[in-house]
Amino acid sequence: MRRTPAIFAAICALLAAILVAAAAQAAARGDICATMRSRLVRGGGGASGLFVLDAGSGSVVCARAANRPRSLASNTKLFTTSTALARLGPRSRITTLLEADGELDRNGVLHGDLYLVGGGDPALGTPSFYKRYLGGLGTNVFALKRGLRAAGIRAVTGRLYADDSIFDRLRGVADSGYATSPYIGPLSGLSFDSGFSGPGASGFAGDPAIDAAKTLDRSLRAAGVRISPAVALGAAPASATAVASVESPPLTRIVNTTDVYSDNFFAEMLLKLLGARLGGAGTTAAGAKVVERFARSHGSGIHQVDGSGLTRSNRASPHQVVDLLDSVKSTPAGEDLIQDMALAGHEGTVADRMHGTAAYGRCRTKTGTLTGVSNLSGYCFNRDGKLMIFSILMGSVGDLYLAHLEQDLIAGEVASY
To answer: Which end of the chain is more exposed for a tag (fewer CB within 10 A), N or C?
Structure first.
């Protein structure tokens, strides 16, 4: 019993040490947050917001104007691609069909027409194009010839029609008045070579569906199939039956290109595909509603008007971006979303960024840039096993180089927290 005071004193000393350590840690956290806030304003001006979450504990590490919606720029793609992965499935593929309408005689003559039916595949094209410009990611339109031969068709009395009816025929989004945007290319339900015309990708096609049909038609004739060289637009009738098909790469690979390289064309095609599959119409507006519903179902929110973020009125707050990333990470599509974002310092739009910081090789990020806007959001995997989620939305940027520098330093602080 005489040792009780000593034990009590030891316990008190231990508790005091714990409290001192906790206070020091809290002070350090406060210093880190103050530094982050200072960097945010220095790089992005006063119209900027920040939200940093420790995903494991659920504690907020730092926030500044975190609930104020701001222009997302290409951070909009996080909403588009997470919805596509979750609702369509990371391993799903997009099918392009070759359909025949008519009677096939014993000599292999189809007394009728062929229809090239687009499924909204953004990767459809020629190997020469996608190997040169998309790192080999593509859907080979020429593969349809094998199916046609297997069906026994050697000649067609009619012609080849291009069916792009899965989407509307608006070529652009609000930012370009729904005409073809130089930052996207022409959108089409039967897209081809990312909307470019000719082998040099120096200009856009007037009608991608017609270009796709012309290319396939020439290929069929070169392979000995007798068919008219005159192609036309036309929706396949209900009586037409599929004689060949070709499938896109898995959706997760399309999303990877969309997010890592910030591919506007892929993002807009995915949004229209969401509209066609889940929103009742293959339109940008229908797809945007699908994404907004998805965000709400994950405790987040967005005002979305296109898929890529080119239109300035795509808006969400830093808190909403983090809420989306935090919620989606635990879904079956979560790991794909994380891996389909650019690894800091190694690839895509951040290949030359965050070198020399703790974020290098540890953060998966998405950039976003418009005039006066520079954003960076994503996940960081810290050395001690912590998962951190952050969103930096800078809304009054005067110097893009400085904005990137301060974002990279903030990401480094997030990754070392």
So the answer is: N
User: What is the Cα–Cα distance from 414 to 350, expressed in whole angstroms?
Assistant: 16
The arithmetic mean of pLDDT across residues 359-371, rounded, is 98
Locate the DSSP E strands across 272-348: 315-316, 342-343
Which of helix, strand or coil describes residue 86? Answer: helix
**Residue 9 predicted with pLDDT over 70:** no
Pair of tokens at residue 345: 């310092």
The Cα–Cα gap between 405 and 54 comes to 23
Instruction: Determine the residue type at 411.
Output: A
SS3 state of residue 380: strand
Contact 155, 110 (CB under 8 A): yes
Report the pLDDT value the prediction gives residue 201, as an integer from 0 to 100: 79
- Put residue 302 in one of left, alpha, beta given phi > 0 → left and psi -120 to 50 → alpha: beta
Shortest CA distance to 83 belongs to which of 369, 381, 336, 377? Answer: 336
Residues 6+ apart with CB under 8 A from 73: 309, 314, 368, 369, 370, 373, 374, 375
Task: State the average pLDDT over residues 122-148.
Answer: 97
Task: Report the C-alpha gap between 239 and 237 in whole angstroms.
Answer: 5
Are 268 and 198 contacting, i.e. CB atoms less than 8 angstroms apart?
Answer: no
Answer yes or no: are the C-beta atoms of 290 and 273 closer than 8 Å. no
| Dihedral over Cα of 346, 314, 93, 299: its sign | positive
Count the Cβ atoms, other than its own, within 10 Å of residue 108.
15
**372-386 pLDDT, tens per residue?**
999 999 999 998 889
Contacts of 141 (CB under 8 A, 6+ apart): 96, 124, 125, 126, 192, 212, 215, 216, 219, 246
Task: Report the Cα 255 to chain-centroid distance in Å.
Answer: 5
Q: How far apart are CA 407 and CA 417, in angstroms?
A: 15
The torsion angles phi and psi of 376, rounded to 5 degrees, stand at -150, 125
d(CA 381, CA 365) in angstroms, rounded, equals: 11
pLDDT-above-70 percentage for the chain: 93
Tell how strand 160-163 and strand 109-117 pair up. Answer: parallel
Q: Residue 173 in contact with residue 181, Cβ under 8 Å?
A: yes
Cβ count near 140 (within 10 Å): 14
Amino acid 5: pLDDT: 55
CA dihedral 330, 331, 333, 337 (to 10 degrees): -30
pTM, full prediction? 0.92
73, 308 Cβ separation under 8 angstroms = no
